[in-house]
Amino acid sequence: MWVDTHCHLDAGEFSGENAAVAARAGEQCVSAIVIPAVERANFAAVAQLAAQAGNCVYALGIHPLYVPRADESDLLALRVKVEQALGDKLFVAIGEIGLDLFVPELKTPEMQEKQEHFYAEQLKLARDFALPVLLHVRRSQDLILKHLRRIKVPGGIAHAFNGSHQQAETFISLNFKLGFGGAMTFPRSLQIRRLAAEMPASAIVLETDAPDIAPAWIQPGVNTPDQIPRIGEVLAELRGMSASQAAQLTSANALAALPRLASSGLLN
Predict the structure, then answer these.
(1) Which Pfam families match (predicted)?
(2) What confidence tens digit (pLDDT) does each residue in 62-105 have?
(3) pTM for the complete prediction?
């Protein structure tokens, strides 16, 4: 049993094949796939997709890459949608939210301020409803942590983690798991592989970020959630454990990071 803690199954690359992609992952023992929203326009889509597929759950949030075209009404709509979704057993988190200081147009003072505003407001939403968050952390680890120290949330997952050892330990101290995926499969990704090997076993979850961040054997192709077992085998090799041990470990960690996943019934 495996869990893909971050997969954009509603992406255009999977158009018309979404359910089939999820089903193929299920055939590879991927029992749960977490589909994060990225903007108001796809809140309903991720919820509907999770309901249609037999092995998916979803999160709701506004991704930093979509902040430039978002406004305050989107934050209000998110709060309403979250309140409605609390009764849905397939709703598990606030996400994908965070900060991106890699994309040039997002690094201007004005846009960074807007990013931080949307990030902070969504952290407050997670705090208010005691929900974990799925964090986008690109070139922004310290700033992400600054807000997490100020706005206390139950925890969650630092998606596609690529920070320092010290930053990793700080996320862990704040009850966050670290997401590892395709980037870990490249031999030259020394820092990521070192973190995957050395971080506490209880801190690691697996993800694809499909259709992005394809593993070494697919890159530059389209990533899919059925790659999780093979990605898990790489983690197992790095940590000196069996694939079955890696599956059990990372699935348990996903449940710890996303408590509502247990009530979804997917991992029973």
Answers:
(1) TatD_DNase
(2) 999 999 999 999 999 999 999 999 999 999 999 999 999 999 99
(3) 0.98
Alpha-carbon separation of residue 211 from 10, 40, 83, 189 (angstroms): 10, 20, 29, 20
Phi, psi of 33 (to 5 degrees): -125, 125
- Give the strand order in the sheet containing 204-206: 2-4, 30-36, 56-60, 91-100, 133-138, 156-159, 176-180, 204-206
- Asked whether 8 and 36 are in contact (CB, 8 A), the reply is yes
Question: What are the chain's domains?
Answer: 2-263 (3.20.20.140)
CA distance 249 to 122: 29
Q: For residue 3, what are the β-bridge partners?
A: 32
CB neighbours (10 Å) of residue 198? Answer: 11
pLDDT in tens, 116-146: 999 999 999 999 999 999 999 999 999 999 9
Residue 92, phi-psi category: left (phi > 0), alpha (psi -120 to 50), beta (remainder): alpha
Residue 181 CB neighbours (<10 A): 30
Q: What string of DSSP letters covers 104-136?
A: GGG-SHHHHHHHHHHHHHHHHHHHHTT--EEEE
